Amino acid sequence: MLLTTFVICFSLFRFSLAAYSLQDDYSGSNFLSGFTFFTDADPTAGYVDYVDGQSSGLFSQSSGSVKLSVDSSNVASGRGRQSVRLTSKASYNHALIVIDIGHMPGNICGVWPAFWTTGPNWPSSGEIDIVEGVSKQTTNKMTLHSDPGCSMNGKDCQGSTGCSVDAGPYGSNINTAGGAVYALEWTSDGMSIWGWSGGGAPSDATGDNPDPSGWGSPTASFQSGSSCQVDTFFKDQQIIFDTTFCGVWAGDSWPSTAGCSSLAATCQEYVQNNPSAFKDAYWTINSLKVYTNGDGSSSSGPTTGNTDTSNSVANPVPASQVPVNPVPSTVAEVSVPATTAAPPVVNPVPTRVQQGGGNQWGGGGRGGRGGPPKKVKRRVRGRHMKHLIIETSDQVRDEQGQSVILEAGVPELGEKLHI
User: Fold this and answer.
1) Smallest Cα–Cα separation from 21: which of 291, 296, 297, 300?
2) Maximal CA-CA distance, the chain
3) Taking the mean position of all CA atoms in its chain, how far away is CA 335?
4) CA 250, CA 267: separation in Å to the nearest integer?
5) List of E strands, 198-327
6) Is residue 55 within a helix (H) or strand (E), and if so which, with residue range?
7) Helix (H, G, I), strand (E, B) or coil at 96
8) For residues 47 and 81, what is the distance between their CA atoms, to the nearest angstrom?
């Protein structure tokens, strides 16, 4: 009798945790009140000029939906083709995030759209890529990025490489089907992502009280365990939308991308000179909602200004100087041009990176300021590529303007560095 009572109570307890209630609704007219426009240089070395969506006309609202566009009328110049990148003012710890996508950038050469979340001081607080891909990719790539020490599904989630699952609707497939719904459930037990297109989402998925326990198997599952405790590696996540071009993924994969490489010698050349090709490179968001289930672990806090803390770089190395084929990679070789110009470094302070299997760069320097010199060696892939700049024969700095002391000494100008 006591055992039966316990089982019944436990089952009710589990059900109560599965039942979510709405915390933040970013749908329609509520959208801009919860997001800010990121207008700094692209951290991924993309050929893109992120602008204020309202003043540029690339952000609009109609019939309860939000549209995020790119410039498809003008030959690009300067930093690149104009686009928008938005970051939520609130950050979250455990949540159910559900987005109803009416349209997303299609399978267009040179385009790199993403709907994702990230925490401060990348990668120490983690990153969750919910919808992401490049160019002619037809299947969604869902990826976790973390500090060293986290493995999921037999894959190392560390740094820029991350651990991925390729599945679910993406790009033009979503648009042809009339839209898609994606849902991320993040608990102490792990991350689960569902993706449904063409009206296939459960009826409660976008309602007031969704219950993922009735949704069947997720499209991607990253479960917490001895190889990775989710609460240790993922925290304080902000929601981000962006559409960039070329950069360290779409740009570097250009020579090997069928149907794209024949259009122009480089990704940048194509994106710059073919504005009409990007008429379909826009997002339409029917709704975006964040739910909590009463476990007391979700938090949010509106902030002001440019809140995107994910590796904002003041002076990124041009995409043309980024090494080829970073997806995926082990150790990349980066040529440091002798002509690279760099602003003066004010009070440079060495940053710390653990040696061997230690921390990778990201978000203003892993490990904080101070400590011993960093060993310049790391794996690279995707949105978090970093570079070294040789200033003089005895001064090296990273993109954050911080001093770097090389283990093997300072190389000659123009010498290749292994990072």
Assistant:
1) 291
2) 80
3) 26
4) 8
5) 220-223, 238-245, 283-292
6) helix 53-56
7) strand
8) 6
Amino acid identity at 139: T
Taking CA atoms, 396 is separated from 165, 341, 365, 390, in Å, by 37, 12, 15, 5
Dist. CA 45–CA 322, nearest whole Å: 8
Which amino acid does the sequence have at 367? G
Answer yes or no: are the C-beta atoms of 38 and 243 closer than 8 Å: no
Cβ burial, residue 9 (10 Å; 0-12/13-18/19+): exposed
- The dihedral of CA 78, 79, 80, 83: what is its sign? negative
pLDDT in tens, 96-115: 999 999 999 999 999 999 99
Band of residue 310 on the pLDDT scale cut at 50, 70, 90:
low
- Rounded Cα–Cα distance for residues 53 and 56 (Å): 5
Are residues 194 and 158 in contact, defined by beta-carbon separation less than 8 angstroms?
Answer: no
Are 20 and 292 spatial neighbours (Cβ–Cβ below 8 Å)? yes
Cα angle value 68/61/101 (rounded, 5°)? 55
Amino acid (1-letter code) at residue 137: Q
Q: Which residues share a beta bridge with 225?
A: 228
Helices (DSSP H) in 98-169: which residue ranges? none
Q: Which residues pair with 182 in a beta bridge?
A: 99, 195
DSSP three-state, residue 297? coil
Active site residues: 127, 132
Element (H, E) at 355: none
Express each pLDDT in 193-246 by its tens digit: 999 999 999 999 999 999 999 999 999 999 999 999 999 999 999 999 999 999
Q: Would you mind telling me the total number of residues written for the chain in this entry? A: 419
| Among 111, 110, 334, 370, residue whose Cα is nearest residue 242 | 111
Which H or E element spans position 190? strand 190-197
The two beta strands, 65-68 and 59-62, are antiparallel
Interstrand relation of 48-50 and 81-83 (parallel, antiparallel or unpaired): parallel
How many angstroms separate the CA atoms of 371 and 369, rounded? 7
